Amino acid sequence: MPWYMQDIAHCLPLTYATTIVRKVMVLGASVSAISTELMVLIGFGVVMLMIAVPMFNHAMTR
Q1: What's the CA gap between 40 and 48, in Å, rounded?
Q2: What is the pLDDT of residues 6-52, one digit of tens each?
Q3: How many structural domains does the chain have?
Q4: Is it the case that residue 62 has pLDDT exceeding 90?
Q5: How far is CA 51 from the centre of its chain?
Q6: Domain encompassing residue 51
Q7: pTM over 0.90
Q8: Enclosing H/E stretch for 20
Q9: CB burial readout 3-26, b (16+ within 10 A) else e
Q10: What gap in Å lies between CA 52 and CA 58, rounded to an integer?
Q11: What is the spatial distance between Cα 17 and Cα 21, in angstroms, rounded to a whole number?
Q12: Distance from C-alpha of 28 to C-alpha of 25, rounded to nearest angstrom
């Protein structure tokens, strides 16, 4: 994959989710082994929630 597409892929949560699944299913990794990817996914979820709640409230008040 070209370098620029790899950089874009690192911004997508699916990259981290597939890494977690691969590590757990293939390597039998523990939670401590996938903690970095879990933190990225949790952080992504928190940021998206912080964006979505005000947008939802704004849409409901129209």
Answers
A1: 12
A2: 999 999 999 999 999 999 999 999 999 999 999 999 999 999 999 99
A3: 1
A4: no
A5: 15
A6: 3-60
A7: no
A8: helix 13-27
A9: eeeeeeeeeeeebbeebbeeeeee
A10: 10
A11: 6
A12: 6
